[in-house]
Amino acid sequence: MRLIFVGADHEVTGSCHYLQAGHKHILVDYGMEQGVNVFENAPLPVAESQIDYVLLTHAHIDHTGLLPLLYAKGFRGQVYATDATADLCSIMLRDCAHIQAMEAEWKNRKAKRTESLSMMEPLYTMEDAEGVIRRIVPCHYDREVKVCEEMTIRFTDIGHLLGSSSIEVWLTEDGETKKLVFSGDIGNKNDPLLHNPISTKEADYVVMESTYGDRLHATERPDYVTELASILKETFDRGGNVVIPSFAVGRTQELLFFLRKIKVGRMVEGHEDFPVYVDSPLAVEATGIFQDNRMECFAGEALELVQAGINPISFAGLKLSITSEESKEINFNDTPKVIISASGMCEAGRIRHHLKHNLWRPESTILFVGYQAVGTLGRLIVEGIDEVKLFGESIQVRAHIKKLVGMSGHADKNGLIEWVCGFERKPEKVFIVHGEDNVCTGFAECLRTEYGQHTYAPYSGTEFDLLTGQFVTEAVPVPIKKRAKGAASGFYAKLLAAAQRLLSLVKRSDGLPHKDMTKLTDQINSLCDKWQ
Questions:
Q1: In sequence order, what are the residues at sequence separation of 6 or more whose Cβ sits closer than 8 angstroms to the Cβ of residue 74?
Q2: Greater confidence, 76 or 249?
Q3: What's this model's pTM, rounded to 2 decimal places?
């Protein structure tokens, strides 16, 4: 029985952990890396086709974005997630595949005009996304699910995103059971839409995030509604737009809740009827999913509005932009407006077009409302870069750059400490992941020296034996190196993955009836003869 750390170790994105119990191979999350990656990730310890199950903490792409690639390389197991996470994944993974296809098409058009550039293939296709979506098994909160003889799981609301959860995992091997808890991303308290994080009582081992393990939010939650209304008035008085790069799922809906309060209260004097554009098909679909799950997942004032028959994230003047034509028209309208668009870190999607049209305008405001990973365009703008390059064009940054400080879906250091100290007895080991390099190290040290927790901040490739409680391998950090020329990618990588899947099938065929093995042998030989 073992645990191997694969992704988001001394880094914030690309979450992935591998478990083995008996002959079962399990992943907890399989996320996409975003921004600058400092360290190399260890490869999966087994071929993708051998993975039996994936457990998802929530739907954000840095926890789910490589699932279609897993499918493309032979995975045909089951993916377990909460009901709302299953709903969100059904749109987010398709959207991610669409964005990759569009970016590959754009870069390939450019490559045709530039002989030095090679053609690009998308990481995976829409068919791969749809294939893995069909493997998702929706689960209710707070119910034990026996996945197989070796594993039982339970999802608990962690308050980070609609459907987000910590996952309790009971693993059994040779008659002995160990319990692990994966925190997922722990939510911030007093979120206007979601419940507070729920603690778990006991675990042998805990794997927890540390995104904000080095900082504290304000003691009292800021008055975001008043602050946002002030930014809107100042910008509209100048004749500019307020452009908000926002995560399509979670943050966009929170902003709509604030904007509704501003609208109802007529808080922007002289501009009471200002239009609000949500320019993201994903955000529009996600907002519908929030509505479908409102009774189970909404909390506080939002739930009170729902119970009174009022939509808490809709209002007069809200315009939903779906088509690319509708998106383009937004920037040809001179009326001062709010534009909410994805992606939240400005790395892809329609937000880059709105930045191109507004960054150079001193009357406009670019308002950041979420975490910006190191190396992303959003982080560069927040840190004061003077010029950016968008679609091959250099754009001067003259717009006002603002942040709603403390607006976060992540718990701060105190919130993280409160969650891990909520266990009735100290776990045997608390593994600290999903934080920048120095944050993982510092937070692990804080928990160890100040709270007596048995902590360890693993690097990718670290392997731990869950039965003996001993490390098999303590990996060291491996700095990112450039991919070697001729390295397998695209369709060739998929061919190699298919070959691995076939080999895995052959290895498992021992014990089949002789006639079945003979048939399979003949089919393989026939295939080889055809292509030689």
A1: 47, 48, 49, 497, 498, 500, 501, 504
A2: 76
A3: 0.81
